[in-house]
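Fold this sequence, please.
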Amino acid sequence: MATASVLMADAFEIQPCTPHRRVIRDEGAHAVIGVSVGNGCFSAGRLHDLARWGLEHFGRVDLVCADLYVAEMYEAFGYPPGEARRKAAKSLRGVRAKVRNAVTAAEPDGARLRRQPMSRFRADAAYQEIHRRLWRQLDEDDDFRALCDDLVGRFLSARGEAAEARQRAVCLEYVCAELPLFLDAPAILRLPSSLVCYHQRLPMAELPYGRGAGLRASRNQGRAIVTPAAPSHTANSK
């Protein structure tokens, strides 16, 4: 896979995954900024910075909280059901509050900046169709299923977890709930183009942009890795 050069923009480094996706970044129509639950990278300060950065460089921005299958993931990794639900509820309250505060501080009137839970998209017809197509391909395409299973195993291994059957099943559901945004956020959000931003590479998110996987992102869908710039870079980024 070709990799575009890193773009410097204020306090963050932006690395689009291909040269074409760099064009989408330069258009600046829209960004989805993904926010994970239970991830220490998403401090209150980081979310405030990301909200301001998004408004400076994109016409519209959605901070999307990955709020699906959180309790199920905790349970799959060994928490008793009741404790898993309580831990998920506490984690979700915390991250929702931080996202809400960041959005309100950056743009009180909410004209261009929104906070969105991933769960809200499940009622959207475009999301539902992409999600159905994804699971249909998993059922019908053995090569694609094997690739997804391998990537889930790598994801779990990176967490230092043994890839047990229950963990693999929940992880696959969690990832497939998020993949529609990597495939066609413009269709789901009714926008001309969109760049999905996250702070690290996600193995499953590579699928829509690779070759031979049987799964393709739309031409107006981009993905980028967005990380804080080194202090020496920030001063020279303008």
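The first helix runs from residue 19 to 27. Residues 44 and 97 are 9 Å apart (CA to CA).
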